[in-house]
C-alpha cells in the first residue's frame, strides 16, 4: 500500500479512476447519462502532454473495451485496476455497498484478467473503490500480487458543484510526492473534471512540479 511518493523531488502523480457500478450502468442503459467516458478530459491530457495513471473498473472495461485499448496504446498513460464493479471493501464505504470477504480476491482478479486482455503493458497498481480498505481487505487481496495505491490529495471532483472548487482543492493541497485522485468517468458523477484539468496542470507546472505516472513517482 502506498499513499504518496518521496517528499523532496518536485514530482506529482495525477491519477484518474474510471468507476462503473451496476447502478451507473443502468443509467447508461436507460439513457439518463450519455457516457461514462470523459473524452474531453482525455483530449486535454493529450494536448497538455500529461502523463497519468488510470484505474479502471472491470464493468467500465467491459462497457468501453475500445477506449481501454486506445488508452493502453498511449504511452502517456499507464493502466491499473479499480475492482470489478466498484463495491466497497469495508462495511461502511459511502453508498458503495459491501463486497463479502470471500468474494474480494475473485473480484480483483476478474478486473486484472480483463485489463491484461486489453493492455499488454498493464501494471499491477490497484485502487480500492472509495479508498476504503482495512487489514482484512489487504489480507484477502495479498495473493493477487497487487500494490494498492492510496492518495494524499483527493481531488473532490466527484459530484463537484463547479470546476473552480476542484482546482482550488488540488492546488491548495498538492505537494512534492503527492498522489492526486480525480475521475475519468465524467457524466453526472464527475461533471467538471475536464474543465478543471487545464488550470490544475498549468497551476502545478507553474509551481515547478513535474507530472509523472505512479510508476515514475515510485521509481528509485
Ligand atoms: Zn472509484
Automatic annotation (TrEMBL):
InterPro entries: Glyco_hydro/deAcase_b/a-brl, NODB_dom, Polysacc_deacetylase_ArnD. It comes from the Bacteria. It holds the Pfam family Polysacc_deac_1. GO terms for molecular function: hydrolase activity, acting on carbon-nitrogen (but not peptide) bonds. Residues 10-220 form the NodB homology domain. This is Polysaccharide deacetylase family protein. GO terms for biological process: carbohydrate metabolic process.
